[in-house]
Amino acid sequence: MIPSLKFDSDNNIIEFNGVLASFHCHHYNCGLLKAIEEIPSIDGQGVIIETAAEEFFQKFKQILAGESKEISPIKALEEAEELYRFMGFGRLDLSKLTESGGIAYADSSYFVVSWLAKYGRRETPVCSFTCGYIAGILGVIFDATPYTYEVKETQCMVLRYDRCEFTVSKKANDD
Fold first, then answer.
1. Strand order through the sheet with 164-170
2. Does a structural domain hold residue 77?
3. What is the SS3 assignment for 140?
4. 76 and which of 56, 95, 141, 166 could share a cystine (Cβ 3.0–4.6 Å)?
5. Does some domain include residue 32?
6. pLDDT (tens digit, 9 = 90+) per residue, 129-148?
7. Stated pTM of the model
């Protein structure tokens, strides 16, 4: 599966799989992440994770629905890796994930590189969006909801680890 990306240069419009899309630079994305995280009355990282999970649950469901035949969970995970890479977010290894959870890895991350370029080191992981991405696509692959999986970044390259690591578990109670 290669997603469809069209650019209408006359109108400066980008269409991703038939849906209008907006791509932003690291200044915008890091500024947005920082602003959301700094709102004292909310769980900023939780908001980012949940929003990404909901969005990619819908988008990945549409992508898989466009397949000419039903695909296995292993193939769907490979397609999710390719989609993540295609969108410029980095390289994810989802091969160790199953319906009950597991560990995923990223050896390159747009979010880490962007944060380091704009703000430098920080004391907490920065790949909240990726946590949501993983939760959303697993919901689709295993016929669940975007809230079925809890994804925590347990190692992050922004913290000087060699790669980002995401621990995935299936929640006991599907919200």
1. 90-93, 101-109, 164-170, 149-155
2. yes
3. helix
4. 141
5. yes
6. 999 999 999 999 999 999 99
7. 0.87
* Number of domains into which the chain is organized: 1
The CA-based angle 131-36-115, given to 5 degrees, is: 65
The pLDDT value given to residue 150: 97
Q: Which residue has the tokens 């959870």?
A: 101
Does the residue 13 lie in any domain? no
| Closest by CA position to 25, among listed 33, 15, 36 | 33
Strands (E), 42-157: 90-93, 101-109, 149-155
Q: What tokens were used for 33?
A: 């992440």
Whether the pLDDT of residue 151 is over 90: the answer is yes
Which residue, chain included where needed, has tokens 């039903």?
70
Query: Is the per-residue pLDDT at 123 higher than 90?
Result: yes
Question: Does 71 fall in a domain?
Answer: yes
Say what the pLDDT of residue 21 is. 65
Q: Cβ(175)–Cβ(144) under 8 Å?
A: no
Mean pLDDT computed over every residue of the chain: 89
Tokens of 100: 């009950």
Q: Where residue 166 sits, what CATH number does that domain have? A: 3.30.1380.20
